[in-house]
Amino acid sequence: MSRRTDIKPAEGKLGVLLVGLGAVATTFVAGVEAVRRGRAQPIGSLTQLGHIRLGKRTENRNPLIKEFVPLAALDDLVFGAWDPIPDNAYEAAVKAGVLEARDLEPSREFLESIRPMPAVFDKSYVRNLDGENVKRGKNKRELAEQLREDIRRFKEEHGCSRLVTVWCGSTEIFLQPSEVHQTLAAFEAAMERNDPQIAPSMLYAYASISEGVPFANGAPGLTVDFPAIWELAREKRVPIAGKDFKTGQTFMKTVLAPALKARMLGLSGWFSANILGNRDGLVLDDPDSFKTKEESKLGVLDYILQPELYPELYGEVYHKVRINYYPPRGDNKEGWDNLDIFGWLGYPMQIKVDFLCRDSILAAPIVLDLALFLDLAQRAGMHGIQEWLSFYWKSPMTAPELYPEHDLFIQHMKLKNTLRHLQGEKEITHLGLDYYE
Q1: Which of 284-288, 289-293, 308-312, 361-365 has the lowest mean pLDDT?
Q2: Residue 101, helix vs strand vs coil
Q3: 54 pairs with which residues across the strands?
Q4: Of 8, 102, 109, 221, whose CB is crowded by the most CB atoms within 10 A?
Q5: Structure confidence by residue, pLDDT tens digits, 28-85
């Protein structure tokens, strides 16, 4: 048994600041309130429903995760948001069309009380959205300082002892790391001169981390995935995580691809198509925003299948991803996957998947888990990239010298072993040798 980590208690209110008050954010907030009122179950949330095995199988110790590690209670959560559209959480939820009236009306007064703060928004980075609830400033540094003021004011007005920020906003245009992203000094100078390589999401990350607030990036953009922000997170001793919530099609890929590899079955091609009609679908209808999402989705197979190790099985995989904006479908995304595989003596076979999912229904419990786990990490003295949270991401962040782990089951084991380690419990390896000790 390892030494137990000294974790500060989860005392007082935890403020959850959401960048974007659209479908995902409102589904998350309304869902948490429904659970707090005893009207629903937090299905999909590992922190709320998941158990964790401790010790030998013969010991039969399987507590709930929320009873094993000191997580913030749902009753202690307070919500705030930024959005370029001024609708309150109730109005935004109705427009998003994810939840039915039966789930919104009982919490209407509560949802109406959540009004978004003016956002840092630039149409150059999300071309298919408009909004008048935006901040003005002489440069990006000044806009970041306005965000910092928002954070301090929210914490004081709501009596929060701690905060967490989660990006639930739209996918920005594709940006690659450049010189301005390499050091904190270069990044801050670039903000001063309004460098176009500094996207709005990066300002939220900078402001949050500067205020000692953990940050999770639910979209595929750079945002917190570059050296200057890593430097700031180390300096401020703040945990960060990302990127891109793993919900529908990519979730299925991280289940199926490990199965193929485990059985040493070959893969010739994987064609993925999506139709989606919500705000996210509209944003991704712009080719430059789609490029950012495409990069996130395409990397999964290479990392799981390791074609450099298995060239005869995965060396020539044709992988194509399409996302099509289709307004009638709303938030009810549909993903089609066609897999051309081959087995013994090279004989071909096929797998076809049609996943009719609800994008925000899958994302909402991820937002909850990330908020609670990042708050736990902060209180446990963990800072920088939280690779143990890779389970939740399409494109998991890692230390620069490592490759990301995409296999869902390895990610799940890593997450639970981290929790065991924090509490001084033995990590589970499934070797079976401990039974005979």
Answers
A1: 289-293
A2: helix
A3: 61
A4: 221
A5: 999 999 999 999 999 999 999 999 999 998 999 999 999 999 999 999 999 999 999 9
The CB-based long-range contact list for 257-263 (8 Å cut-off, 24+ gap) reads 257/300, 257/301, 257/304, 257/305, 257/406, 257/407, 258/304, 258/407, 258/408, 258/409, 258/410, 260/305, 260/339, 260/341, 261/304, 261/305, 261/306, 261/310, 261/314
Structurally, what CATH architecture does the domain formed by 13-245+360-422 represent? 3-Layer(aba) Sandwich (3.40)
Tell me how far apart the alpha carbons of residues 98 and 101 are, in angstroms, rounded to a whole number.
10
Query: What number of other Cβ atoms are within 10 A of residue 98's Cβ?
Result: 26
Q: Please give the class, per CATH, of domain 249-356.
A: alpha beta
Going through 187-308 in order, the beta strands assigned E by DSSP cover: 215-217, 239-242, 266-276
Counting beta carbons within 10 angstroms of the beta carbon of residue 348, is it exposed (0 to 12), middle (13 to 18) or buried (19 or more)? Answer: exposed
Angle between helices 200-210 and 227-236 (to 10 degrees): 20
**Beta pairing, strands 77-82 & 334-342:** unpaired
Dump the DSSP string for 111-126. Answer: HHT--PBPB---TTTS
At 94, list the tokens.
């109705």
Pairing of strands 13-19, 77-82: parallel
Nearest residue to 76 (alpha-carbon basis) of 15, 165, 127: 15
| Tokens coding 96 | 């998003």
Residue 49 structure tokens:
């429903």
> Smallest Cα–Cα separation from 293: which of 164, 126, 411?
126
CA separation for the pair 90, 114 (Å, rounded)? 8
Distance of CA 113 to the CA centre of its chain: 25
Query: Hey, what are 75's tokens?
Result: 């009753």
Q: What span, in angstroms and rounded, lies between the C-alpha atoms of 164 and 14?
A: 8
- Give 297-342 pLDDT, tens digit per residue: 667 898 999 999 999 999 999 999 998 888 888 888 899 999 999 9
Do the beta carbons of residue 252 and residue 355 sit within 8 Å?
Answer: yes
Confidence grade of residue 437 (pLDDT, cut at 50, 70, 90): very low
H or E stretch at 318: strand 318-325
Domain residue limits, the chain? 13-245+360-422, 249-356
